[in-house]
Design brief:
The complex is a heterotetramer. Chain C is an all-alpha fold. Helices cover 65% and strands 1% of the residues of chain C. In chain C, helix 5 (153-172) runs parallel beside helix 10 (304-329). Chain D is of the alpha+beta class. Chain D has one domain (64-346): Cytochrome-c3 Hydrogenase, chain B (Orthogonal Bundle), CATH 1.10.645.10. The longest helix of chain D is centred in the N-terminal third of the chain and has 29 residues, at 109-137. The chains are: A alpha/beta, B alpha+beta, C mainly alpha, D alpha+beta. Chains in contact: A-D, B-C, B-D, C-D. At the A-D interface, strand 3, helix 3 and helix 6 of A face helix 2, helix 9, strand 6, strand 7 and strand 8 of D.
């Protein structure tokens, strides 16, 4: 079974998929679907259990499962959110023996109950402990924080919509910028788009746009600039601030623009020295 | 026959092991006779902390609270008051709880004026833990006793016979490598 | 954590004293400025004590008893009173001999391990740590006499004594020089087997009596190991008896004046050496007290002088089993190739027959033999210590396999060889 | 002696293996010379044969993860040293890698080589401790002192550069905390020249020694499937024939530029694990030599940059430390420190396997197997 077959979105309606920091993350809210998905992933060859962690999300508890397929070193992250009053998650320790103690630890420290675990006892703390110290309602001394309040369960659809909106705005802005760059407008560098802005997104919200939303504009934006020798993740971010995300834009930079860019970003002759434009042109040609 | 060769091989290997053990005596003693013979401690080694007082008796510390903020174990306590005569602050109190300190030297890195430094005096053993709740007098005393000390800003420094503070030569400094290479390049150019 | 200011003001301000660090004084000796002469003398001192004790028992005491006009001897042999008195004195002194031998070997082991492990070993008590074991002995004697609550007090008390007595009994039959033996038994070889086995009981009941699981496991391991290794050990003793034709140890030594028994009976000698390693309970056969598995094995709960008895017995055996090997296989008190020319004969031939010089020469000749005996024993003991410094330990089933599948067949082959050689050559 | 009922629960095999004899419960630890710290294993033994094994951990639990929630990203690093105190520097790397990924920091070329050389150097130090303590478990004292003799020399080099011996607090986001000593590379090479001649001695005393082979060949067999399914990593996994090494499979720092191959053995027993570690010592020597050759001698050692991580960002990064895969999972809420950081310590995962390996084995083999897994309890309990 391939990974795509295992993660069939139509079978598992509550499955959400997103990319965070370059990693695919699958998010679930339905415990039975979680178990189902894990069985399928094992069949799909994800044989090496890397890590299982519990996180207190302040609206509920999350179990995070990191899997690896040793045959091609593919990695996969799985989230399952459960509410505080019903912190039950099906155990997968029978599928992967390696998560056995991780589940016990998550039970011990975070308080997630793994149903079907053979031996769900406290592992690091002593048996007579009554609290789960990694929950946010306890302070470092193990005492209940008096005014602690759980947050409401996030409305994932609204967040997704919000994100979609933000993504569309960003795409539009990028298009505008691209157009502006094409027209060789001297003042192409626009003030930063307010995706972070004054409104702080809720904790649970993931910053990066969802893949499903991002697909239509994928052709338009976000070439892998790191392919150019001399550009790393740091410069990609800087370039993105200046509105440059594609090879095309980089290839079409005029000398003036390049100089301005260098001044702006403290590059010092780097574009010419490392021949970014030439490289970008070659890559652009190779792509199209 | 096979048994005999195997037994012979086993005996030979045991003999090899015994030869290794008896030859090891040639490597000499590697133990430090500690109280009678002090170990050589490199100048950058962080064994304890000290405050540096300049040769003219003034504190280097400017009470900026940077070390207090950066300390992971939160063992530094500083109290300061405004200097009534000029700008800046007067240091009222500078305490480090050396019992809970984990000698990560984060404070030394944070210090903008290299006032708090790492020293090589590792003998902090004491009969009374209260002694290790070091106050400013203690830290000053440690600084006065130290022959050499290290801070990332100024590098390895030492106090000469006149009591003046001097910076150690490049060979003793971390990062002296690049400077030495430059010097060597210049010399080869000349 | 940072203290609040009012709490900090309560803190006592303790000034830094000039010498705030504890600086111990070197009691005896500084290896950095060694005094070689003192060092050698100190280390030799114990050895001199050892040799002196032996001389006292076997040379000086009988000579004193047989002085002209002594009521204790008549016509060159002891009277009954003399024999009883000599027996008691010699027993007390040979107890000291065993203890001093153990003390020397403990020190040698520690110093040797220190040498090959790139460290100093004992060095604080006396010159170059020569008196370390004495200090240890004093410490052990001074410790509290402690019996665990759940232990069987009687057996707990008796077990170390049984082990020690077993080792001590072996000392009585060892001929250090011609005629220098406390009990010249006709069945000396049998006595070795009989006395040696008592130690196994001591270890077994010691491990059982302390009511500790590790101790029990250690005791059982010890019982299995010691009883099993008695068999190849006894068979190789038997080969010597077959070859020489006597069970008397003096006879066996006398038969080796020209050729050592080890030359025809090489297999038996090798089997004896390996099996005696197991009897001593030294690495690689230290399973009964395997400290990384069974904490301390059969002597987990023992402390003070009770532990000291186990300890001393172990190191006394480290002297005694090589000594028996020397008696049986390596020519005893004879210098090598004594059949051709023996310096002892020269000493014995001093002066006229019956003169004082001749008597003194006889004493010297015996002392000369004793020195050869001790030298050979020391070399074998050193071999054991060397093996101990090198090898890890076996597993219990491997230990048994080695005994039953390798050593016992080998010892039987050795026996067959001895029989054939006896038929051919004698 | 009665044992609390709570200690005896757990999924274990209860039937005595040999005959119908009484089972004896033996408490191996928490105070036992062969548990390398405070680990308790409740063993049921039938004679010398183990019928069940229930491990208990947590005696050294300090809850670093809760402490780290209230620290800033940089303040966490000194705590990481204290997880696996045998090779302190190696613990810092995966955390730094994760934060660099999240904050988009790029490590300068020179710092990469310094970090890689230090990382491998710590692997040598860690394996030296393993050689020594493992031989101590098997009853040989001498190799232990040899290992610590050489380890002290190695620690001196670390101290000359980082200022600390076991808990150096040296790696940081974007490079290393301070520049290396002028004689750093020469120091390393001098030590390796000496050390390379000593390693054959260790081999003579361990993997080549007949008694060691008698104790280790065929003991504690760990099958490939079981190892992978239980998430075993490091030399233990590679000794079972799985060529999984994050230095190759998910390379970080300067590893892509270095030339090496993953060491594996197919036997899966205690001897194979030992041999893999011995070979890794040679490999580390070679890798450090390569680093010393390739590393630029001047240039920045630290890319300074603000660590600002947006809310909702998360990252799992792992590195191949001497005991296996040390992973860090960081979840950010946009604050100055990690909202949650979970450490996947290799010893913790590797220790899970012991009931499977112990049952049916001899009591002596239990010690041999436990030592061969190479655990550090500071890391297990965190």
């Amino acid at each position: 079974m391939s990974t795509e077959a295992a993660i069939n979105l139509e079978d598992l309606p509550t499955l959400r998929q997103q990319t965070i920091c370059g990693e695919k993350v699958y998010q679930l809210e339905d415990p039975t679907a979680y178990r189902q998905l894990c069985e399928r992933l094992l069949a799909a060859g994800y044989d090496f259990p890397q890590c299982l962690s519990g996180v207190d999300m302040e609206y509920g508890l999350r179990t995070v499962l990191h899997l690896r397929r040793l045959s091609d070193q593919a990695e996969l992250t799985l989230w399952l959110d459960v509410p505080y009053d019903r912190p039950h998650v099906p155990s997968v320790s029978d599928l992967w023996g390696g998560v056995d103690w991780h589940e016990r630890e998550a039970y011990d420290l975070v308080g997630i109950h793994y149903d079907g675990h053979e031996d769900l006892r406290r592992i690091l703390l002593e048996d007579h402990w009554t609290i789960h110290p990694l929950q946010r309602r306890y302070d470092t001394g193990g005492y209940l924080i008096p005014d602690w309040q759980a947050k409401p369960w996030p409305d994932w659809d609204a967040i997704a919509k919000e994100k979609e909106e933000a993504a569309r705005k960003a795409a539009e802005a990028a298009e505008k910028r691209a157009a502006a760059a094409k027209a060789k407008a001297a003042k192409a560098v626009k003030p930063k788009e307010g995706e972070g802005g004054a409104k702080k997104p809720p904790l649970s919200e993931v910053k990066k746009t969802s893949d499903q939303v991002a697909k239509p504009k994928a052709a338009q934006t976000a070439d892998d600039l790191t392919k150019i020798k001399g550009i790393g993740a740091h410069y990609v971010a800087l370039l993105k601030e200046q509105g440059i995300t594609r090879f095309e834009q980089l290839a079409n930079l005029s000398d003036d623009e390049a100089k301005r860019l260098e001044e702006k970003m403290n590059f010092k002759d780097r574009i010419a020295r490392e021949q970014w434009r030439e490289q970008a042109r070659a890559l652009q040609e190779g792509k199209s | 026959m096979n048994l005999i060769t195997e037994a012979a091989k086993a005996l030979r290997d045991i003999g090899k092991g015994m030869a290794v053990v008896s030859r090891a005596a040639e490597k000499g003693k590697h133990t430090n006779l500690y109280p009678f013979e002090m170990p050589e401690i490199p100048p950058v080694s962080c064994q304890s902390l000290a405050l540096i007082i300049e040769a003219d008796g003034t504190d280097r510390c400017v009470s900026c609270l940077a070390c207090e903020k950066v300390c992971p174990s939160q063992v530094i306590t500083i109290e300061r008051t405004r200097n009534p005569e000029g700008k800046g602050f007067v240091l009222e109190r500078f305490d480090i709880d050396l019992v809970n300190c984990m000698y990560c030297a984060a404070c030394v890195e944070a210090c903008p004026v290299s006032a708090i430094v790492t020293i090589q005096d590792f003998e902090l053993s004491t009969y009374d833990l209260q002694t290790l709740k070091a106050d400013k007098a203690f830290l000053d005393e440690q600084g006065r006793r130290a022959k050499q000390w290290y801070s990332p800003k100024l590098g390895v420094e030492y106090r000469n016979e006149q009591g003046e503070i001097q910076v150690a030569p490049l060979e003793q400094q971390p990062g002296g490598e690049a400077e030495l290479l430059k010097q060597a390049d210049k010399e080869s150019d000349n | 954590m940072a203290l609040s200011s009012d709490k900090r003001s309560q803190l006592k301000r303790i000034p830094i004293p000039e010498d705030r660090h504890f600086k111990p004084q070197l009691v005896g000796y500084n290896p950095k400025t060694p005094n070689r002469l003192a060092e050698v003398l100190a280390h030799s001192l114990l050895y001199f004590v050892f040799v002196g004790l032996l001389l006292l028992i076997y040379g000086v005491l009988p000579w004193l008893f047989k002085l002209p006009g002594s009521p204790l001897a008549s016509g060159g042999s002891f009277t009954t009173t003399g024999a009883v008195l000599y027996g008691i004195l010699a027993a007390v002194l040979s107890f000291l001999v065993a203890a001093v031998a153990a003390l020397i070997l403990i020190l040698v082991l520690r110093k040797y391990l220190g040498l090959v492990q790139n460290r100093y070993g004992p060095m604080h008590n006396g010159p170059a740590g020569a008196f370390q074991t004495i200090a240890d002995a004093v410490k052990m004697v001074a410790k509290e006499d402690f019996v665990p609550g759940k232990a069987d007090a009687l057996v707990f008390t008796l077990a170390p004594l049984m082990v020690f007595v077993s080792a001590f009994l072996l000392l009585t039959i060892i001929p250090f020089a011609p005629g220098w033996v406390l009990a010249n038994l006709n069945v000396g070889l049998l006595f070795i087997v009989a006395a040696g086995t008592i130690g196994a009981y001591g270890v077994l009941v010691g491990g059982w009596s302390i009511n500790n699981k590790f101790g029990l496991l250690g005791g059982l391991r010890a019982a299995a190991q010691l009883v099993s290794y008695e068999i190849p050990l006894s068979i190789s003793l038997l080969t010597v008896a077959v070859w020489v034709g006597s069970l008397n140890l003096m006879d066996i030594v006398e038969a080796q004046k020209l050729w050592w028994t080890a030359i025809p009976l090489l297999i038996s000698a090798a089997v004896y050496l390996i099996a005696s390693l197991a009897e001593i309970k030294m690495t690689p056969f230290d399973l009964p007290e395997a400290e990384s598995e069974l904490v301390a094995g059969f002597n987990t709960e023992y402390s003070g002088m009770r532990f000291g008895f186990f300890f001393v017995a172990e190191f006394a055996e480290l002297f005694l089993l090589p000594a028996i090997a020397v008696v049986l296989f390596f020519g005893g008190y004879y210098q090598p190739l004594a059949g051709f020319w023996d310096f002892a004969d020269v000493l014995r031939g001093l002066g006229a027959e019956g003169s004082t010089l001749n008597q003194f020469g006889g004493l010297l000749a015996s002392a000369y033999g004793m020195l050869w005996f001790l030298l050979k024993t020391a070399l074998l003991s050193y071999l054991v210590i060397w093996v101990r410094a090198t090898l890890p330990r076996f597993r219990d089933d491997q230990l048994m396999e080695l005994c039953w599948k390798v050593l016992i067949p080998l010892s039987l082959i050795g026996l067959a060889v001895a029989v054939i050689l006896r038929l051919v050559f004698k | 002696m009665s044992i609390p009922a709570a200690l005896m629960t757990g999924p274990t095999v209860l039937e005595p293996v040999v005959g119908k004899t009484d089972e004896m419960i033996v408490n191996l630890g928490p105070q036992h010379p062969a548990t390398h710290g405070v680990l308790q294993i409740v063993l049921g033994v039938d004679g010398e044969r183990v019928t069940r094994a229930v491990p208990h951990i947590g005696f050294l639990h300090r809850n670093h993860e809760k402490i780290e929630e209230s620290r800033s990203y940089a303040q966490v690093i000194p705590y990481l040293d204290r997880m696996d105190y045998v090779s302190g520097l190696q613990n810092e790397l995966p955390y730094c890698l994760a934060v660099e990924d999240l904050a988009g920091l790029e490590v300068p070329e020179r710092a990469k080589y310094i970090r890689t050389a230090m990382f491998e150097f710590n692997r040598i130090i860690s394996h030296l401790v393993w050689v020594g303590t493992y031989m101590l478990d098997l009853g040989a004292i001498t190799p232990f002192l040899y290992a610590f003799r050489d380890r002290e020399m190695a620690l001196d080099i670390i101290e000359r550069t980082t200022g600390g011996r076991m808990l150096p607090n040296y790696f940081t986001f974007g490079g290393v905390r301070r520049d290396v000593h002028p004689k750093f590379w020469q120091d390393l090479l001098d030590f390796l020249d000496y050390f390379e001649k000593v390693v054959p001695e260790y081999e003579t005393l361990t993997v080549d020694a007949p008694v060691f082979q008698a104790r280790s060949v065929g003991v504690g067999l760990l099958s490939q499937e079981l190892a992978v399914n239980h998430g075993i990593s490091g030399p233990n996994l590679r000794a079972s024939g799985v060529a999984h090494d994050l230095r190759k499979d998910q390379p970080y720092d300067a590893y892509p530029e270095l030339d090496f191959s993953v060491i594996t053995r197919d036997e899966g027993d205690v001897w194979a694990r030992s041999k893999v570690r011995m070979d890794e010592i040679y490999q580390s020597i070679d890798l450090i030599r390569q680093c010393a050759e390739l590393a630029p001698r001047s240039g920045p050692y630290l890319a300074r940059g603000r660590v600002k991580i947006e809310a909702g960002e998360q990252r799992y990064r792992a590195a191949e430390i001497s005991r296996g895969q040390l992973g860090v999972y960081i979840h950010s809420d946009g604050g100055t420190g990690p909202y949650r950081s979970k450490h996947r310590s290799p010893s913790f995962v590797n220790l899970q396997i012991i009931p499977d390996l112990f049952i049916g084995q001899k009591f002596s083999d239990v010690i041999a197997i436990l030592g061969s897994i190479d655990i550090v309890l500071g890391e297990v309990d965190r």
